[in-house]
Please model this.
Amino acid sequence: MNILLTGHKGFIGTALYKTLAVNHNVHGIDLLKGDNLLDCEWPLDIELVIHLAGKSGVRESINDPAAYWTNNIEASRRLFERYHNVRILYASSSSAYEPDLNPYAASKFCLEELAARYPNTLGMRFHTVWSHAPRENMFFDKLFKGTLTYVTTHYRDFVHLHDVVDAIQVLIANTHVNGILDIGTGVPVRIRDLVTDLPVRLNTPTEREWTCASTEKMKALGWKPKYSIEKDLTDTDLGAIINIITGEKTV
Model:
């Protein structure tokens, strides 16, 4: 199959590209290699589009909301118009459940509204995607590097990168599935319970207090997560993190 994968150099895109390239002809488009969805040339004979490109991050969106509109809405509009007769799987976010909280959430909600005009689209509401090689400057990256300065009382549904890649492959195979669905574990974890040695910040009005994926649709397709952050973020991992935070050395 000829697949167009936008954002193929990103956190999820890199892992997905490697997996799909084994059995498919994958065309990658990414700003990191100089491609801009607002004016790039589109490849021909595409049979499936997986649209992962876009700006992420709640706090950055507050400082530059216009960039989130341009990259998450206008760029996607151009993509949807070009491939209006092709099935498109696109990355949304659990943030879209509360679009009033921040510009990032609003951009993902508007993206879903835009996609609804095109009958052969599927929005993947990713919850908090993690791995042992995490996204740069996000929670786990700071945690593993020892640069995290506080935790919160928020509950997050952490879904492993490998499970996300598996879920996308399941959705590729089930061509009848459209609309919007969640990709997560359905098991929220409180952030302050992951690391108990840091100060707790309570005043975070732009962030969701609770996220929990609705897993029924994905389970009906035969997918279920293999990883659990409480089981797979091992005692050794947590011990190393605590040592970094407290300045102690491992023996």
